[in-house]
Each structure stands twice: as C-alpha cells, then as structure tokens.
Amino acid sequence: MFIQHLLRPHIAKLEPYSSARDEYSGEEGIFLDANENPIGSVTAAMYNRYPDPYQKKIKEKLAVIKGVKPENIFLGNGSDEAIDLLIRAFCEPYRESILIMPPTYGMYEVSANINAVAVQKVPLDTNFHIDLEAVKKAITPQTKIIFICSPNNPSGNLLSQEAITEILETFKGITLIDEAYIDFSPQASWLPMLEKYPRMVLIQTFSKAWGLAALRLGMAFAHSEIIAVLNKIKPPYNISKTTQDLVWDSLQYERFKNEMVERILEQRKFLEKKLTAFDFVEKIYPSDANFLLVKMRNAQNIFEYLLSQKIIVRNRVKVAAGCLRISVGTKEENQQLLQTLQEYVNINSKKIRLW
Ligand SMILES: Cc1ncc(COP(=O)(O)O)c(C=O)c1O
C-alpha cells in the first residue's frame, strides 16, 4: 500500500467491523442475518432492511458521470463525514497536524479540534489567494493534510491552479481540495488529475448545485487505497436507504442541476450589480460560487437590521473584517433583500437629518 506510511499505525492494522450485508450482498434470499424486523415497517413504505453499506448502485452511476471508477468514490453523510474520517485516518492526536488557509470553511478546524489534531494556519493573502511561500515554509514532518478550498468559502474565489499544482507536486502528505462549489465556477474540477496525484483527495457535495442539502450526501474522490481506508473506518451503514434511492433517481436529472446553476449565476450577476450601487458597500469580492462576500461599512448593524426583517445572511465580520456573506437567492428573494437594504439606507439618512 503506497499510503501505508502516512496512515496512523493502528488504522493501517485495523480489522474493520464486518456487517451482515458485508458477508452476503445478494438481493434475494431469506434474510435472517441482521436482526431486522421481518414483518415490515410502521410506515407504509418499507424501511425494515439495512441499506447497502457501500452504495454500489449510486457509485456505478456517479462513476460514469464523473469519469472515474466506482472504487475511486467514497460517499459520506455530507462531505463533513469525509473530512472527519480523513483526519482520523491520517493524523495522530496531540502529535500531528493539518494545515488550513483562513478565512476558509470552518469545519476543517472544528474536525481537527474534535480529534485533538493541531491546526497550522497560513492565512490567504489580502485578495484571498494562497501565500505559497508561507505554506511551503509552514510544512513540517508532522503536517499530514493540507486543506485547500477552491472556490473558497467564505471568499468565493477559485484559488490559483499554479499554487495548487505546486503543493500537489511537492507536499508529501495528503492534499485535500474541497470543491463544494465547483459547479458554479468557470474552472473544471481537479478530478481528471486523480491518477497523476495519488495523494490528492477531492471533496464534492450534493448539498449545493444539486439542491439536495437535506439528504446529506457528500463525495470524496481519491486513489482506491485511500477510499478503501475510508470505507474501513466509516460507520457501517452511513447513508440511509432514502438518501441512496433519492440520489440515485436524481442522477438522471443532471441537466436540471445545470439549469439551476445557470439561473443562480444570472442572479449572482444581478445581485452584484445592484449591491455595488449602495454607498455603504466598500467591496464585493469576485465570486466563483453561489454566494458573495461583501465588505461594507456598518456590517454588524446591517446584519442586525436584515435579521430584524427576517432576512438571514451570514455574518463573517470575525473572519473577514467588515464582511457579510450573502447566498444568492431566487429573483424574488434577492429583490426583497435589495429593497430591505434600501429601507435601511432611508431610515439611516432620516436619522442623520434629524440630528
Ligand atoms: C467548502 C464547504 N465544504 C463542505 C461543506 C459541507 O457540505 P455537506 O453539506 O456536504 O456536508 C460546506 C458547507 O457549507 C462548504 O462550504
């Protein structure tokens, strides 16, 4: 195994739990092996049998869509599950670390903290690009996984392909590229590079462009040896039958996903243009995702005013000074947001006149 030396030693040696459905994976027969309810379910639909632990049907379909082999795919309860499992597989608590580039998706740090794994932080530069020299300098023999979020959350921009390539070529540990927002970006996925970079792991999700956040299904793509490790340490039946069935069905509607992406991108353009016209907006960061990071005067006040009007945006002032992150809504939602911001301006200009 080429990743043996990178794995935590006890994970490399681990004998995994063998579930009933591991030992017999056929679909026909009298199933008396998993202590299920033989009569049925309390609901009209039948949920009395455990689901496929390896989600083979979805993986076969997904492999065709993504141009990889089923053995290069791991499916998790949201991509957060894959993030957690990768840290657990590769990073020894109290001794080893992950490297992240803030401001970025918060779960990398939280997952590392849960697992008592150290977090090395190399901030993105002022335009939210990778500070490659600083990353290279920060890498130590204890650095096991570098997390790259591209397009990045919360800034929304794709990170430089050259910088990512340099990390892939030189870093001896696992390079994880989180592509949760890749469908909204003009750049293609790193998937075709899977063979060239066997220590690269790509993360994607059904929660964004596919519009299936409630089903909780995340994907990790990697060398089959890395996928085998994730399968070995995951909970046996991590993806429910409902999710497996609904996602399998959804995969035939990829064109609807693409149409929704088009509509969201149109609205992003509209929102960006209208927001720029507000005096309090200082900067809208270029976005390759389905949200905008907007730097504004009085961000905290505006956030609170929007909240009082039941418009909920993400307050990012603590991670990106003066910034709110605004997901692109429907046309009507965006218009409501803009109207509410105009009301905020009107109320405040009246206040100033009264003074
Ligand atoms: C960059 C990034 N990665 C991963 C996730 C988690 O996605 P999932 O719903 O698949 O757990 C999110 C969620 O917002 C995200 O922004």
From TrEMBL:
PROSITE patterns: AA_TRANSFER_CLASS_2. CDD domains: AAT_like. Residues 46-341 form the Aminotransferase class I/classII large domain. The modification N6-(pyridoxal phosphate)lysine is found at K208. Pathway: Lipid metabolism; Amino-acid biosynthesis; L-histidine biosynthesis; L-histidine from 5-phospho-alpha-D-ribose 1-diphosphate: step 7/9. Pfam families: Aminotran_1_2. It catalyses: L-histidinol phosphate + 2-oxoglutarate = 3-(imidazol-4-yl)-2-oxopropyl phosphate + L-glutamate. Its EC number is 2.6.1.9. Keywords: Amino-acid biosynthesis, Aminotransferase, Histidine biosynthesis, Pyridoxal phosphate, Transferase. GO terms for biological process: L-histidine biosynthetic process. Its cofactor is pyridoxal 5'-phosphate. Signal peptide: none annotated. GO terms for molecular function: histidinol-phosphate transaminase activity; pyridoxal phosphate binding. InterPro entries: Aminotrans_II_pyridoxalP_BS (IPR001917), Aminotransferase_I/II_large (IPR004839), HisP_aminotrans (IPR005861), PyrdxlP-dep_Trfase (IPR015424), PyrdxlP-dep_Trfase_major (IPR015421), PyrdxlP-dep_Trfase_small (IPR015422). It is an enzyme of class 2 (transferase). NCBIfam families: hisC. PANTHER family: HISTIDINOL-PHOSPHATE AMINOTRANSFERASE, HISTIDINOL-PHOSPHATE AMINOTRANSFERASE-RELATED. Belongs to the class-II pyridoxal-phosphate-dependent aminotransferase family. Histidinol-phosphate aminotransferase subfamily. Homodimer. This is Histidinol-phosphate aminotransferase. It comes from Raineya orbicola. The lineage of its organism: Bacteria, Pseudomonadati, Bacteroidota, Cytophagia, Cytophagales.
